[in-house]
Structure formats: structure tokens, C-alpha cells
């Protein structure tokens, strides 16, 4: 700091101001990185939990569904007097239902937002903040 005129506070030199700006920029970059990490961690935990729950449901459901479908296939085969044909009919209907369920699951997965939205929004305001033209958007 350089000494100012009597009665006025001392002024920072240009070198001091540039140093402060560099430190603040570095701090801002670190905070931005922490925000990205937090958002990605939160999103990945949500995806992990959803996948684990889905796998558990599929494991139990496949076993039960297999037994149920075999029983239905025998009943349909008995009704048409051909066990093999009954099994093929039930298998075909099961595959159609599986395709419909898969299409729904794919849409849900596609709708999952994996981008760190808050980080991107904050990063877009950095140039305006650096130039002093940041305005309050009411957000």
C-alpha cells in the first residue's frame, strides 16, 4: 500500500490490485470446480440408486414372471390342444410387453438431466461479473 495524502485512506497500487484480482479469480475457479463436483456427485448418486433399485426389481421379477408364464403357457396350450403352440403364443405376447416397457424406460433415462445446470449458469455470468456489468436477474 502506498501512503495517500493526509486525511485520505492509503490507495492500493496497481500491482496490489492485479494481485488481488488474480487471487479472487483463482478462488472463483476453485469454487466453480467444487460446485461442478457437488452437482456431479449428487446426480451420480441418484442414478446409482435408481439403477440398483431397477436391478433388484428385475432379478426378483424375472424369476416370478418365468414361473407365471410357464403356467399360463400350459393353460393356453391345453386350451388349443397344443402345448408347444400355447408356449409360443405366450412367449410372443411377453416379448411385445417387454418391448413396450423398454421403450418407456428409455424415455425416462433420456429425460434424466446429467448436465451440471447450476455450474453452467454460474459460468455464463463470470464474464459479466468480471467486467462489472452484472445485473440482478431476480433469480
From TrEMBL:
Domain of life according to the entry: Bacteria
Q: Which UniProt keywords apply?
A: Membrane, Transmembrane, Transmembrane helix
Q: Name the residues that span the membrane.
A: 50-77, 83-105
Pfam families, per database record: Phage_holin_3_6 (PF07332)
Protein name (Swiss-Prot/TrEMBL):
Phage holin family protein
Q: Which organism is it from?
A: Blastomonas aquatica
The root-end lineage is: Bacteria, Pseudomonadati, Pseudomonadota, Alphaproteobacteria, Sphingomonadales
